[in-house]
Amino acid sequence: MTTDRDATVGVVLAGGLARRMGGGDKPMRRIGGRTILDRVVERMAPQCDGLVINANGDASRFAGPGLPVIADTVEDNPGPLAGVLAALEWVAANRADARWVASVAGDCPFLPENLVERFHAARRAQDAELCVAASGGRTHPVIGLWSVDLRHALSRALVEEGMRKIDRWTARYRLATVAWPADPVDPFFNANTEEDLAEAERLAALL
């Protein structure tokens, strides 16, 4: 759990349309008999001072974990940055004790158990305003740590500038990139296709 100064709410970004799986909600697909969402919540809950799910449409389909489900506050489904903004605004309105939001993708079943801890350590060491994760030589901008104080600037970028790419946004700020090993299992493996689901079943057996 984080300190008071680092109080962090986690957001599971569950807005993907799963086109490569034939549609539907990727977080609700099953690996080893459990939904990916359940696995994500299990990994993140002990690390955070509360969790929310970002999703649009009928919130009841994500009712299983019993977490708040918040929709984008920007129209036309502009992507994960809108989900991050929705979480920052929700935390500002509902959790005055929390200054940070940790975002994760809802289709990553093997997230590291020290994600938030390492983000905050890197942020403090590098005097960073934002953090993103990396593994296997690749950055994962959806997996990040965001200051609630940046919500107004992010809103302007989304609404007035039409910004959509996360790395364009993070390039404006002092950014810490925190890397994890990708062996034996990449903690940021994400299930985008039916083949990925089959691979996830294999990887789950290694953990």
Description:
This protein starts with 7 loop residues before the first strand and ends with a helix. The model is unreliable at 18-22 (pLDDT under 50). It is globular. By secondary structure, the protein is of the alpha/beta class. The chain has one domain: Spore Coat Polysaccharide Biosynthesis Protein SpsA, Chain A (Alpha-Beta Complex). The strands form two sheets. It has a seven-stranded mixed sheet with strand order 5-4-1-6-8-7-9, with helices on both faces. It has helices spanning 36-44, 80-94, 115-126, 151-159, 166-170, 194-204, and strands at 8-13, 30-31, 34-35, 51-54, 69-70, 100-105, 130-135, 138-147, 175-180. Helix 2 (80-94) packs antiparallel against helix 4.
CATH homologous superfamily caption: Spore Coat Polysaccharide Biosynthesis Protein SpsA, Chain A
State which percent range the strand residues make up.
Answer: 15-25%
Number of domains: 1
- Helices and strands, in N-to-C order? EEEHEEHEHEEHHEH
Which CATH class applies here?
A: Alpha Beta
User: How many helix segments?
Assistant: 6
Backbone shape: globular
Work out the helicity level.
25-40%
Described by strand count, sense and barrel closure, the largest sheet is:
7 strands, mixed
Rg to the nearest angstrom?
Answer: 16 Å
As residue ranges, the low-confidence spans are 18-22
What distance separates the N and C termini? 23 Å
Overall number of strands: 9
Helix/strand/pairing class, anyone? alpha/beta
Mean pLDDT: 92
CATH topology: Spore Coat Polysaccharide Biosynthesis Protein SpsA, Chain A
CATH architecture annotation name: Alpha-Beta Complex
Strand arrangement across the biggest beta sheet = 5-4-1-6-8-7-9
